[in-house]
Each structure stands twice: as C-alpha cells, then as structure tokens.
Amino acid sequence: MGFKKLLASLGAGGASVETVLTEENVVPGGVVQGEVRIQGGSAAQQIEGLSVGLQARVEVEGNDQETKQDIEFTKQTLGGAFEVQPGAVHAVQFALEVPWETPVTTFLGRHLTGMNIGVTTELAIARAVDSSDLDPISVHPLPAQQAILDAFGSLGFSFKSADLERGHIRGTRQRLPFYQEIEFYAPQQYRGLNQVELTFIADDRSMDVVLEMDKKPGLFTEGSDSYRAFTVELSNYQGTDWAAYLNQWLADVGGKRNWL
Predict the structure, then answer these.
(1) Chain segment 21-52, per-residue pLDDT in tens
(2) Residue 81 domain boundaries
(3) Strand pairing of 117-125 and 45-62?
(4) What is the pLDDT of residues 156-168, one digit of tens each?
(5) Are residues 149 and 132 in the same domain?
(6) CA pair distance 196, 182, nearest whole angstrom
(7) How far apart are CA 251 and CA 243, in angstroms?
(8) Which of 5, 115, 204, 206 has the most crowded Cβ, counting Cβ within 10 A?
(9) 189 Rama sector, left if φ>0, alpha if ψ -120 to 50, beta otherwise
C-alpha cells in the first residue's frame, strides 16, 4: 500500500483534476464562477491544498530582449486538506473575483490578438504541485471603457494589436504588476501620427485612461512619443462626447505632420 501511495504521489495512478467554468464571459470587477472536479485514481490520495487563480501572459523586457512570462495576478484558496478515495469524485465550487484592472480580451465580439488570460487550478498533492491547463476567459469592456473604444472607432482608428507589459505607469492607480496596451492605426486625417496606444487602469469608482501617441518623423527630426492621461468616472461617463474630447488631443498632436 505504501508503494502504491508513493506512485500516486508521483502521478502514477493518481488523481486527476478538471476545472469547468459556469460562464467564461466576464467584466473587470465581476466574478468568474466554476467548479473544480477531482477524480480519484487507483489509490487514495491526500490533497494538501487546492486553489484557483487568474493568469496572464505578459511581455517582459530585459537584457536587450523581450520574453513572455505567465503571471498569476489573483488567487483564491478553496478549503483545507482532504483525502480523495480511489475512483471517487470530489467537486468544489468557486466564485473568483475579477480585479478591476484585468485587461480586456474581447471587443465587439472578437478576441483581441495577443491576449491570453484564464483561470488556473493548482492541486497540491504530497508536497508536489500540479497545475492544470489554462481555462481561457473572455473579459469584456466596462461600459465606460466601451465608450472610449467606440470613440476611437468613430474617429476612424482601426485595431492593430494588444499586449501586456510588465511594469508600472507612474502617476496612475495601478496595482497589478503589468498593464495593457491596445494599439490602433491612425486614420489619414491625423497625418502626424503613426499609431496610438490606449491603456485603461480602473478601480471600483473610476479609471485612468492613458494615451501614447506615436508621431511620425520629419525630414530632419526623428519620430517621438507624446503622452496624455485623464480620469473617467465609471458611473458618470455618459454625458461626455468622447470622440470630440479625444479628437482635441489627437488633432493637436497629430493633426499635421512636422516636416522640420
């Protein structure tokens, strides 16, 4: 029996774990619900711990190169230790809060290229840790975020890509160790711009909106970046014409091309 338990702790004939999400569509500040199902193997196993979390694949810059890193940015422990009998099924339900800063992965029914966010499940068995595969979730914009994204669309900007950068944007309410950049191609009326990167950093009341505008080079000048930031109240955003508001800054920076 001792030998069988040892094999089980090493994964031979051991328990298997599966996570089933009730609904994969969520919003920042919401909840992702689901159930973790542990199927007993051929031998009884002591489960020392069970947890679920949210994980994102993030770009990390260092040593003149860029790498990808999986970062778990929230975690919830599901109960204490327990034993799973051979062949038995142990099911644990969970409701995992989605941080307000969680990046948007879906816009107008399409997945934003470059976004890889989902629920991870961690099962600790006899001093070993078994992490399941990522169960993807679709994070839809908050209404205030949707209004800003719609404004970019109405101004003629087209989606290019999205990525997650490890680091911190100074002067914002950021708490997570990374932030999202949603990149747009600039339309022709903004002749001085190549593209614009948009970042949302929200909490339960308001959000910082950060714009990084990539200016085209002139004949004798190099291209440069121009930054703008403003705050939007999550419960009081409807009264603003966001297309007109954004256009003031975008036209000022990129309405004409500086040739000299």
Answers:
(1) 999 999 999 999 999 998 888 888 888 889 99
(2) 2-139
(3) antiparallel
(4) 999 999 999 999 9
(5) no
(6) 8
(7) 11
(8) 115
(9) alpha
